[in-house]
Amino acid sequence: MRYPAAITREGKYTYATFVDCPGAMTQADPGESIEVQAVDLLEGWLESELASGRTPPRPGRRLPKGGIWVEVPSLLAVRLALRMAREDAGLTQAQLAKRVGVTQPVIAALEHPDSNPTVQTLEKVARALGASLQVSIEPAGDGR
């Protein structure tokens, strides 16, 4: 999962703005990496949304001219995907919990920024949502 960031330069500063994430904007001073600043901002913004009980907007599919794609860390992407899939299915946490055979606090914990669900748990939740779990390991985009 990745979000597009618009990159602008004003004087000696570089700014990254996430148009899909209201109010999410950061600045890099001269010599700082806007990419590093953008990753930190996006992760914090998305975690804050989840912790407050809100579902962050889905990432846009278009990259602004001169913009960059910012990858969401895998564990956070899993939490976001869980929340979005549950809401797409029109289920409350309690309804999903009943389908999975767990309690509502278990589902709430899975969607919380501090969760670390097992693959087995993710498979159970996916089945309860009428979905399948897809896992892949891809080469890093930067040649590492």
Task: Give me a quick take on this structure.
By secondary structure, this protein is an alpha+beta fold.
Task: Report on this structure.
The chain is an alpha+beta fold. It has two domains: 70 residues, Double Stranded RNA Binding Domain; 55 residues, Orthogonal Bundle (434 Repressor (Amino-terminal Domain)), CATH 1.10.260. Helix content is 41%, strand content 15%. It contains five helices and four strands. A four-stranded antiparallel β-sheet has the order 3-2-1-4, covered by helices on one side. Strand 2 and strand 3 form a beta hairpin. Helix 3 crosses helix 4. The radius of gyration is 17 Å and the shape is elongated. The mean pLDDT is 91.
Notable traits:
144 residues, alpha+beta, Double Stranded RNA Binding Domain, 434 Repressor (Amino-terminal Domain), 2 domains, four-stranded antiparallel sheet, 5 helices, 15% strand, elongated
